[in-house]
Amino acid sequence: MKAPRSLSLPFVDLGEIAKPRRSSDPTDAKYRWRVGERPPELGLHSVAKHNIYERYLGRYIETLTQNHRQTALNMTIVDGFCGGGLYQLNGRDTDGSPLRMLAVVDTAQEALTTARERGFQIRCDFVFIDQSRDHLAYLEELLKQRGYADRIGNDIRLVQSTFEAAAEDTIARIKKKGSAHRSLFFVDQYGWSAVKLATIRKIMSELSNPEVILTFMVDALINLMHENSSVRALAAIDLKRADVQEMIKNRGEPGWKALIQNTLYRHIKSNTGAEFYSPFYIHPPESHRDYWLLHLSKHHKARDEMGNVYWREQNTMKHFGGPAFDALGFDPNVDVSQADFNYVFDDNAKRRSERALLEQIPRLLRQLTADGKPITRRDLFVDRANDTPVVAGMLDSQLALLRDSGDIIIRGVRKDANGRAVATDRRGAKSFAWTDEIKPTSQPALFLMPRAKGPNRS
Asked: Could you count the other beta carbons within 10 Å of the beta carbon of residue 319?
């Protein structure tokens, strides 16, 4: 039986996020753990990050176990900068990412075992990597106290190494488990150069279904940028000194910081090998130091699920850009000082995005269906997923409004009484399948007024 757990990291009011606390030793800016000593204080800026890890992992498992005929899920979780696994927060012991991830999988396993008559097994390997022997010793002792002793060295591996040095062996082990390669890499580097983009590319190119959640201290990088920036440090993210010189030439002008962030984002996204990505920020209001939590994947559904998690972390996540589609593109013909570079994920932002979608969708559909052929919901969303705060649920709500007003027609497939697939108008649906086809009507409505609905055949 497992020992009683300490309090899990609470979902606190993230509007109170504070400046990250550093070690008292000025030569070591990282958290430190030693067996027998009190764990370090957790800066509240990390609360949002750990909440996202936990919530996304839960949704990840739910999504991959929806098939009720399924009896097993093979996956690997890699925590590339795991630390000692325990913190102090408001005077209490608080679980770090290793224990929170273990708890999510344990909870999911219990729920699936109860719900599935044929049983279910989550075969999850945990790889906890840290360069410090003291940190791993602390984590090992903690795992033993929590009842995980017999799993250490089996499905729980403790690896003393840098993430860079451990990546190749970790990838090889994932490949040996089968062809699906379902894996989550939580790469919580302290700065911006501890993980090479080349390593991320290797993960994306060699594994079938990897996802990487990478912390990137973008403000720290921008503040350090100057004409003679270190070539060695820049090489980790495939930048040259000339690239930096170009980015900082307008330093101090209105919108210069947002412009640099946008340029960095474009550079990083083109050098990771990921087809889908989210460039959203965690914003600690009191420290005024933003950092990216970059989610990199190969599938649009993974991108959409992470977007939903971001929306749940209201007032914490933000991006530099506007609402709706094409929000993150930088237009060199627009004065950056007049652009909207402070989009916070809250109810007001959601309303703004939905209003903008009502204007954008008909225009896009006319362009994309000029040849007379309809496009699918997947076509409409996927090609724009990376440059928008919009998630599929928001898109569906506006598609339904446009359908009810007579601006668009949505057609899908349903099963008839004999189980055969037949085409049908999706006249009453509130959400839509990725394969549903959309096209504008020949005479779109002048005003957005819902028309009378027919029978629900969705």
From this structure: 27
DSSP output for 181-207: --EEEEE--SSSSSS-HHHHHHHHHH-
Same domain? 278 vs 423: no
Task: Check whether residue 302 and residue 374 sit in a common domain.
Answer: no
Distance CA 134, CA 84 (A): 8
Taking residues 114-138, report their average pLDDT. 96
Residues 138 and 34: beta-carbon distance below 8 Å: yes
The conformation of residue 405, written as its DSSP 8-state character, comes to T
Q: Which two tokens mark 291?
A: 């950092």
Cα–Cα dist 137/143, whole Å: 10
Q: Can you list the alpha helix ranges (DSSP code H) found in 313-369?
A: 347-368
Dihedral (CA of 347, 259, 368, 310) sign? negative
Indicate the residue type of 174.
Answer: I
CB distance 297 to 203 below 8 Å: no
List of long-range contacts for 249-254, beta carbons under 8 Å, 24+ apart: 253/337, 254/335, 254/336, 254/337
State the residue range of the domain holding 65: 14-344
Instruction: Using the predicted structure, report yes or no on whether residue 420 has a pLDDT greater than 70.
Output: yes
Q: How far apart are CA 300 and CA 306, in angstroms?
A: 10
Q: Please enumerate in sequence order all residues whose Cβ is within 8 A of that of 287, keeping only pairs 6 or more positions apart, or say none.
A: 17, 18, 19, 20, 45
Query: Which tokens hold the place of 358?
Result: 């009502």
Q: 13, 250 in Cβ contact below 8 A?
A: no
In one-letter notation, the amino acid at residue 58 is: G
| 443 band by pLDDT with thresholds 50, 70 and 90 | low
Mean pLDDT of all residues belonging to the chain: 80
**Could you tell me whether strands 121-130 and 156-160 are parallel, antiparallel, or unpaired per DSSP bridges?**
parallel
Beta carbons of 315 and 14 less than 8 angstroms apart: yes
CA atoms within 13 A on the CB side of 74: 10
Q: Same domain, yes or no, for 250 and 217?
A: yes
Residue 315: strand, helix, or coil: coil
Q: Are residues 181 and 322 in the same domain?
A: yes
